[in-house]
Amino acid sequence: MKCGNQDKNVKNCTCTYISCNKRGMCCECVAYHRQNGEIPGCFFPPEAERSYDRSIKNFINAWSRR
Ligand code: SF4
User: Fold this and answer.
1) Which residue has the CA at smallest separation from atom 6 of ligand 1?
2) Which of 4, 13, 47, 58 has the most other CB atoms within 10 Å of its CB?
3) Cα–Cα distance between 9 and 65 in angstroms, integer?
4) Cβ-contact 13, 31 below 8 angstroms
5) pTM here?
6) What is the CA radius of gyration of the chain?
7) Which atom of ligand 1 is the closest one to the Cα of 24?
8) Quick one: average pLDDT of 33-46?
């Protein structure tokens, strides 16, 4: 599927996993992580995002520490 906003989305994407084939395709990114019981990287604070652990547990822990 081609995303018409991919170039624009990539510019605003805070996910550091740059080899991911879903970067800039937010609908696919959200669907992928939701299906795995996870949260997309852009919702995490930077230090937690860089761990690539997209679990809900890591999300709650990361924001609880702030
Ligand atoms: S959050 Fe996950 S699916 Fe989305 S761009 Fe980053 S690694 Fe890819």
Assistant:
1) 15
2) 13
3) 28
4) no
5) 0.92
6) 12
7) 5
8) 98
Q: Of all residues in the chain, what percent are helix, strand and coil, respectively (each to 5)?
A: 50, 5, 45
Would you list the domain boundaries of the chain? 6-64
- Euclidean distance between CA atoms 57 and 49, whole angstroms: 13
Hey, what are 53's tokens?
A: 């652990």
For residue 48 and ligand 1, the question of a CB distance below 6 A is answered with no
CA-nearest of 15, 57, 8 to 32 is 15
**Tokens 């669907």 label which residue?**
31
Measuring CA to CA, how many Å separate 40 from each of 1, 57?
Answer: 19, 13
Residue 63, token pair as written in the block: 């924001």
Q: How many of the other CB atoms lie within 10 Å of CB of 18?
A: 8
pLDDT for 18-31, tens place per residue?
A: 999 999 999 999 99
